[in-house]
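Whiteboard transcription, Tuesday session. T.W. wrote the C-alpha cells on the left side:
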C-alpha cells in the first residue's frame, strides 16, 4: 500500500512538474508501481497473505472468547 501511495505522489508531482521530480525520468517515477506488483506476487506465492489472514482470524476468535468469558464472570487463564 505504501508503494502505491508513493507511486501516486511521484506521478502527480511529475505530471504537474513540481520540484525535483519534474526532472526525473518516467521510469523512476513508475518504479514504485512495479515494486508493488512484485511485492503482491511474492506475498501470494509465499503464503504470506494467507498466513496474515489466519493470524487475524485467530486473534478475533481469541478476543471473542475472552469477551464471552468476561461476561460470564470467568477469570482469564494465567500462564
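and on the right, the sequence the group agreed on:
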Amino acid at each position: 500500500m505504501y508503494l502505491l501511495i508513493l507511486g501516486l505522489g511521484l506521478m502527480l508531482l511529475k505530471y504537474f512538474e513540481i520540484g525535483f521530480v519534474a526532472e526525473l525520468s518516467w521510469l523512476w517515477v513508475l518504479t514504485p508501481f512495479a515494486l508493488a506488483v512484485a511485492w503482491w506476487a511474492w506475498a501470494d506465492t509465499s503464503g504470506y497473505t494467507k498466513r496474515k489472514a489466519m493470524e487475524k482470524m485467530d486473534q478475533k476468535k481469541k478476543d471473542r472468547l475472552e469477551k464471552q468469558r468476561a461476561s460470564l464472570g470467568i477469570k482469564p487463564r494465567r500462564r
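Someone added at the bottom: The chain has three helices and no strands.
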